[in-house]
Amino acid sequence: MTPIELIFLVAIFFFTSIIGVATGSNSLITVPAMLEFNIDPARAIATNMFALIFMSIGGTIPFLKTDVLKRPDLPLLSVLTLIGSVLGALLVIIIPADTMPLLISIFMIAVTVFSVLNKNKGLETQEKPSPTSIKIGYTLIFALGVYGGFFSGGYVTTLTASFIGLFSMTFVEAIATSKVLNIFSSTIATLIFMSQGLVDYQLGIILGVTMFFGAMIGAKVVMKMSNLWLRRIFLVVVVFLAVRNLWQWLN
User: Fold this and answer.
1) What whole-number distance in Å separates Cα of residue 50 and Cα of residue 112?
2) Among 5, 61, 64, 68, which is 20 to 30 Å from 102 by CA?
3) How many other C-beta atoms can be found within 10 angstroms of the C-beta atom of residue 102?
4) Which regions span the lipid bilayer (predicted)?
């Protein structure tokens, strides 16, 4: 990779990490960008996952000064994510890569439909969710952990929607919690990728540091925005990604 190509890649990772704190789905931009620079697909996924650890930590730090992460079920959510991520990372060598655009589109369309039908959810603190909703939520968090360990593209976006719909979180709470879980998901997946020799450490550290500072900026911006504006931005990005990935799959 030439110095000019590296500069372009760093710029892409920096700006997507700023926006991605609120919207997720960084990997839907960053991994294809790495492929454009002729990086091997498996190595691109693994190195991107390595960089996401830095981004998730950077995106979590500003929220530690607030009360949005004070949840008694955070340890359980983390454990479910850890187990799911191990299974997901092991699927990288099994599931054909050309199925991913369709799978991602399905996730994004589901999130869009949910957001449109539940336009008031996530805007303010809701009543405590029902036991059934919580059980479904825990099951979905585990299933999403599998997907997140496998690829991560669209993982945080769907995770955010799940927290809003099933755990009655506001957008800010859901965004903050998803960043914490993504630390576990990315770390476990990366460890497995490292054991397979798939991570490009030199490139990963450069991109990781870039995403760390980008995510810190993004998290500070998120804390200054209202839940209504976070919902608007979230929905616009989700619709765009759904159309983009469906078009990619059709072609």
Assistant:
1) 29
2) 5
3) 14
4) 6-24, 45-64, 76-95, 102-118, 138-168, 205-222, 229-247
